[in-house]
Amino acid sequence: MALVAAGLLGLPLAGSWAGAGYWAAAGLLWPGLARRNRTQALLLLAVGGLCLAWSAGQGAAVAAERILASNSALLSMLVAVSFLGLVSRPGAEREERLPRGRRALASTLGAVHLFGSVINLSSVFIIGDRLARRGSVSREQAIVLIRGFTAAAFWSPFFAAMAVTLSVAPGAQLARLWLVSMPLALLAMALTFWQLSRQGGERASIQEFRGYPLHAGSLVLPALLAAAVLLLHEWRPALSILAVITLLAPALSLAVVVASRRSPVATLGQLVNGRLPQMGNELALFLAAGVLGYGLDTLLGAWGATLPLDGFGPLEASLSYLATVLLALLGIHPIICIALAGAVLAPLSPDHTLLALVFLSSWAVGTSAGPLSGINLAFQGRYGLDSFRIMRWNLGYLGLMSVLVVLAIWLLAALLGVEG
C-alpha cells in the first residue's frame, strides 16, 4: 500500500513492485485461507490464464507487468480503509442498557449502516456479538444487521464494492452518483423497518426487539470522512476517488492516533498482526479476479466479438443489474460478475456513473440474499444461521429493492442525459 501511495504522490515507482508484494502476501497467507476461497481463486486464475494463453496464441500482446500489478490500486484502497478501524469503533459500554421495540430497530439499522460504511464487516460482528444471546441472534436481528450493512454498498467510498466499481468505472462522478445511491440506501433501510414492523402475527416480537443504541456522535466520523474525500477530489481532480481514499484514510487515522496520545508504532503493530492477515481471502480473490478481467479483456479484443447492442442506456443497465443479481443468487461473487460485465461492456463505452450505479446496486442487494455471499456465510459460521434460510428471509426485500433500483437507473440516466 505504501508503494502505491508513493506512486500517487509522484515517485517514479512501477506498479509491478506493489503487485509483487501483494502476490507474495497472498502466497504466505494461502495455507490459512478458507477452502471455498482457495477453490474460487484457483478457478478464476485458471480461466483467466487460459484466456491469456489463447489470446497470445492469436498474436495478442500480453503484458506480464499488468498481470503482476493485478488490482493493486483496488487492494491498496482496501488496506488503507482498514486503518479506519484504529479510530472508529462502535461504543463498547457493556453496562448501557440495550433499547427495545421499534426505536431499537431503527437505531440498530442506523448504527450498523454508519459504522459498516467506514470499518466494513467488523462493525457487524461488534454489534452482533453485543446483541447475541446464547451465541446466536434472532431472525429479526440478523435481517437488520445484514441489510443495514449491505445497504452501505450503495454509497460508501470506503466499501469494497466502491473499490471494485471504481477500478472498472474510474470516470464515475461520485457527487452525481450519490444523488441517487444515497436515497436508495435510505429506502433500503426504510423498507426493512416497514417489513419488520408489519409482519402480522410476529408483531409482538418486534416490540421485544433488542437493538443497539445509536448516539449523535456516531454520525460525525462517517460524515467528516465522506466530506474529506469529496473536498480532496475537488482540490486535486487528477486523483481518482480510489487514489484519494488510499492517501486519506491512513493519514487521517494516524493523525487521530497521535492526537489521542496513543503510540502510533504500537497501534500499527495491532493492525499488522490483527486485521491485515485476515484479508487473505479478499487478497487472493481480488488478485485472481484481476487476472480474469485482464484475460477476458484480451480475449474479447483478440476474438473481435461484440455485443448485439448499439449503446449502454437505461434498458441495458437495468438488464445488467438484474443479470448480476441473479448470478449472486446462484452463488457467484459480485467481484466476478463485475469483472465479467466490465470486460463485456467496455466496447460500448458506457457512461461510468451509470455503470457504477449498476455495480453498486447489484452488490448492495445481491449480497444480502446471495446464499454464498461473504456476509451470509459469516453469519452461518458465527451465529449458526443457515445461509439458505437467510436467503429466503431476504427474497421479498430483493424483489422490492430491484424495482426501486431499476427506477433509480432510469432516473440517473435522465439526469446524465444518457438516452435509451
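Second entry:
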Amino acid sequence: MSRFLLIHGSCHGAWCWRDVLTALHRSGAEARAIDLPSHGSDPTPIADVTLDLYADAILDAIDEPVVLVGHSMAGFPISAAAEKAPGKIRALVYVCAYAPVAGRSLVDMRRAAPRQPLLEAIVKSADGLSFTFDPDLVREKLFHDCSDAAVAYAKARLDPQPILPQATPIALSERYASVPKHYIRCLQDRAIPPEYQATMTADWPAERVDTLDCSHSPFLAQPEALAALLLKAAAMP
C-alpha cells in the first residue's frame, strides 16, 4: 500500500490537500497532510520558524517510510527532511515546487528565475518577518482555473508566510541525493514560471517528470489527475 505525507506551500496549510487526500484514500492509499509550523492550526510564532524547524516537523510526522510530497515552497523543507533522515522517505515528489540546489536559498532560486510573476502579489509585514498574498491578486496568480467555491475556500484560509525559512541556504549531500525524486510541472503556472520548472528538471530522467495543464494549484484545479500522478510516482522503483 502506498503511504503519502503531503506538505503545503507558502501561506497555505494542510487544508489545501483536501480533495487530493480524498482521491488517494479512494485508491486505497494511506495519506495525510500536516500544517507546517505557524501555518493552519499550528501555534508556533512566526519569529521562531526556521527551515530546520520545518524539516523536523515533517520528520516528526513520519512513523513509517513515506512518499513525501511538497508543493511550491515546500520543495525546500521536504529536501531538508530527506537530508536529515533519508531512511524515512521512499521518494520525494515536487509539485510545481522549487527543486533546491545545495548552498542556495529559495529566495536565491526565485531570483534566478527568468520571470517574477508572483512578486506583485507579495505583501511584506511591517516587521519584515513574513509576507501574505494580496487578496485581490490571488485568483489571477494562484487559482485562475479553480472553481469559485475552491477560490473562496482557499482565500479564507491563506495565512502569513515566515520569510526566514525561504532566505536560508540549504545544505544537501549524498544523503539527499540517495532518495528517488519525481517532479510534476504545471504548464499554466503563474507563480513559478513553467519554463523555470523545466530548467530545474532539465537533467532529470524523463520518466520521473510529469506535467499537468493547470495553474499553480493542481490540488484544487485537478485533484484527481494530481492524485493519479502521485500514485504513479509511488509505484516507481
